Amino acid sequence: QRQVVESGGGLVQPGDSLRLSCAASGFPFASYAMKWYRQPPGKEREWVATIRHTNAFTEYSDSVKGRFTVSRDNDRNMMYLQMNNLRPEDTAVYYCNVPGLTWGQGTQVTVSS
User: Fold this and answer.
1) How many C-beta atoms surround the C-beta of residue 53 within 10 A?
2) pLDDT digits (tens, 9 = 90+) for 82-101
3) Strands 68-73 and 107-111
4) In this structure, are residues 112 and 88 in contact, taking their beta carbons and an 8 Å threshold?
5) What whole-number distance in Å separates Cα of residue 19 and Cα of residue 80?
6) DSSP letters for the chain
7) Whose CA is closest to 56, among 24, 79, 33, 77?
8) Rounded Cα distance, 32 and 25, in Å
9) pLDDT per residue over 27-82, tens digit each?
């Protein structure tokens, strides 16, 4: 069964850091680009970052560029999102996505003082 499961969310203060993880199973992880999306409260889901399957190329939305870093470990079938200098506007449910294949159930990130 193709599956991705997010973890690592939580409640943090502005300026803090958090690392999200995405555990993949049931498909050849190393052959797929992977993406992070997020859905802020009351808003539509938005793309956050992409990492190509070769791990040679990453892309970020303008709102997180310079603060977030996406990475992957093809040996462990894992993707990560390191989030630094978090802001209240980063509050959202964060989703792991395999384009054309599957979505995770999401993990909540809340940034609040």
Assistant:
1) 15
2) 999 999 999 999 999 999 99
3) unpaired
4) yes
5) 7
6) --EEEEE--EEE-TT--EEEEEEEESS-GGGS-EEEEEE-TTS--EEEEEE-TTSS-EEE-TTTTTTEEEEEETTTTEEEEEE-S--GGG-EEEEEEETTTEE---EEEEE--
7) 33
8) 12
9) 999 999 999 999 999 999 999 999 999 766 999 999 999 999 999 999 999 999 99
Look at residues 59, 56, 57 and name the one whose alpha carbon lies nearest to residue 68.
59
CA 113, CA 102: separation in Å to the nearest integer?
A: 34
d(CA 64, CA 74): 24
Q: Which of 97, 87, 84 shows the shortest CA–CA distance to 5?
A: 97
Structure tokens that stand for 32 in this block: 């797929």
